[in-house]
Structure formats: C-alpha cells, structure tokens
Design brief:
Layout lengths: L4 E4 L7 E6 L5 E8 L9 E3 L1 H6 L10 E5 L9
Parallel strand pairs: 1-3
Antiparallel strand pairs: 1-4, 2-3, 2-5
Amino acid sequence: MNGITAAHSHWVFGTRARVTFLATGKSVVVRVNDRGPFVGKRIADLSQAAASEIGMMRRGVARARIEVLDKEAVPAG
C-alpha cells in the first residue's frame, strides 16, 4: 500500500513498469508485487503511494499508458 507497487494478472513478480496518467502526463515506475486487478477490464491496480505520486488518488480509475521496463520478466503470449 505504501510502496510504489502495482498488481497485474500475469506479469512476473518484480516486473518494473512505467505508468503514465494520461490526463496529466505524470508518470511513476512501479514494481509488480501482487495479482489483480479482479474488477472489470482494468489492466493494473496501483498502490496508494503510486497513485498519489501521479495524482490519481481522487480519480480511483483512470486511463493510463503502461510501459514494461523489464521485457524478459513478462511471459510470452
């Protein structure tokens, strides 16, 4: 919750990704340390600290660009 982390359904734990909040252009580099999200068509869930870093806390759900920084850590397919 307080770390700069994210949950993703199939990326390997430890994968680093840059998440950019499209409304502001602010970005943060997170490390995947959990599974999820389990709601709708969401791609990733950010920790409170990561969401706060890029100004997403009040939005809850927002459009963002996600760039994987550790290509070898993401399973093929």
